[in-house]
Amino acid sequence: MLNQSPPLDRLFQALADPARRAMLERLALGPAPVSELARPLPMSLPSVMQHLSVLEAAGLVRSEKVGRVRTCAIAPEALSQAERWINARRIEWEHRLDRLGDYLKTMEGKGESDGAKD
Amino acid sequence: MLNQSPPLDRLFQALADPARRAMLERLALGPAPVSELARPLPMSLPSVMQHLSVLEAAGLVRSEKVGRVRTCAIAPEALSQAERWINARRIEWEHRLDRLGDYLKTMEGKGESDGAKD
DNA sequence: CCTTTACTAAAGCTCTTGCCTAACTATCGA
DNA sequence: TCGATAGTTAGGCAAGAGCTTTAGTAAAGG
């Protein structure tokens, strides 16, 4: 890569891993310490820490350490940002299909006086 | 990786690259041949082809070759699937915040007769 | 037929990702 | 203070991602 990942890159990249999605699924139910996020995952604690830092870098999770326990919580604004990008594409696409539909309807109304076929 | 990429892995992975998102943004406006997708991108045609195959593997794009031209179109169902996953997390999180709010309200109503602190 | 156009296939190279183990720090509880 | 708990840091390794160049194939057009 040439440039440092802009937000959407990091965001989707973070969501692309099943372990990280599992962590988010857990966090969607409420905050949790690192070791609880790690428990169901088939990997070592340091690996979980790395996933956690990816999630934090993407803005998807925030965490705070109190005593020796780091408590993690989901940060839903980042999720919304990803959702917005996806939704914008869908809207554009549907809008285009509408225009296509209108066009086809217009053609229909005109009858087949024009020699163009498919 | 433990298992072969399930749909969501491929989906978010595909969305994590700016070149691929640019291709989708173009395709959201309507179908296009490969060379048109490639034109604005700062890379060789074979690279664009590789990105295209990632998008197809993720189910985000479908393409068909007619003559020597391959025409690509967006496949919005895959986008919706990604959106659904994100939305489900947001819903869960918001639901949790509701429950928390109820709980806090209940505590408030009770007054501070209970000695439990942190 | 010959050339251009549009794409495809193959091989290789570099950087990143995801995982590990081992060793370390910092709290908590007895 | 000692040991257990919770997390962190460092280093290393294998696989994958993303890009390149080179060399094709196949349709369109003169």
What's the quick description here?
Two copies of one chain form a homodimer. With 118 residues, the first copy, chain A, is mainly alpha-helical. The first copy, chain A, has helices at residues 7-15, 18-28, 34-38, 45-57, 76-110, and strands at 32-33, 61-66, 69-74.
Computed over alpha carbons, the radius of gyration of chain A is 23 Å
Q: Major sheet of chain A: size, sense and barrel closure?
A: 3 strands, antiparallel
Strand tally of chain A is 3
Identify the quaternary structure here.
Answer: homodimer
Task: Compile the SSE list and pairings.
The structure is a homodimer of 118-residue chains.
Chain A: H1 7-15, H2 18-28, E1 32-33, H3 34-38, H4 45-57, E2 61-66, E3 69-74, H5 76-110
Antiparallel strand pairs in A: 1-3, 2-3
Helix pairs in contact in A: 1-4
The structure holds a DNA duplex (30 and 30 nucleotides).
